[in-house]
Amino acid sequence: MKKISAALVLFSLCALSFSCKNKKSIDINCDGLELSPDIKWALIVEPYVAYRSASGYENHVLDHGRRGDILQLIGSDFVYSDDQPSNYVVWYKFEKGWLSESDVKLYDNKFKAENAAKKLKK
Q1: Is 116 helix (H, G, I), strand (E, B) or coil?
Q2: Checking DSSP bridges between strand 61-66 and strand 70-72, what pairing results, if any?
Q3: Cβ contacts of residue 24 below 8 Å, gap of 6+?
Q4: Neighbouring residues of 48: CB distance < 8 A, sequence distance ≥ 6
Q5: Tally of CB atoms within 10 A around 40
Q6: Quick one: pLDDT at residue 115?
Q7: Whose CA is closest to 44, among 119, 122, 113?
Q8: Partners of 97 in the β-ladder
């Protein structure tokens, strides 16, 4: 009886040790900005956009962007219409310049923006 229980314990320990060897590790590359609640991320949804030097279509073009680009939001501005003050366009500031609200879609974190970009490119 002692031999059977000892063999059973030995078999259990061997099975347990072999089952624990093939653990897969998951690498998460995150510097904290991607999930910060204070930082918004934008996805360019138009095929081609022009970064402006300031908020408003009358300002000169600094650079260009393409659909699927993900950007960190720096600031925003409201540009009101001269003839109707109730009409306004929201402009968002990024590292390369300003884009209008119709050019981008905002997300709470970078991972959501990356997921939406994958769906947008399909």
Answers
A1: helix
A2: unpaired
A3: none
A4: 64, 65, 66, 67
A5: 18
A6: 94
A7: 113
A8: 94
DSSP, residue by residue, 19-42? HTS-PPP------STTT-TT--EE
3-state secondary structure 63-81: EEEECCCEEECCEEEEEEC
Q: What is the per-residue pLDDT across 6-39, written as a single tens digit (0 to 9) for each?
A: 666 666 666 666 655 556 665 566 566 666 778 9
Tokens of 5: 């229980």
Distinct helix (H) and strand (E) counts, the chain:
2, 8
Higher-confidence residue: 109 or 86?
109
Residue 12: partners with Cβ closer than 8 Å, 6 or more residues away? none
Model confidence, pTM: 0.70
Rounded CA-CA distance 18/55 in Å is 63
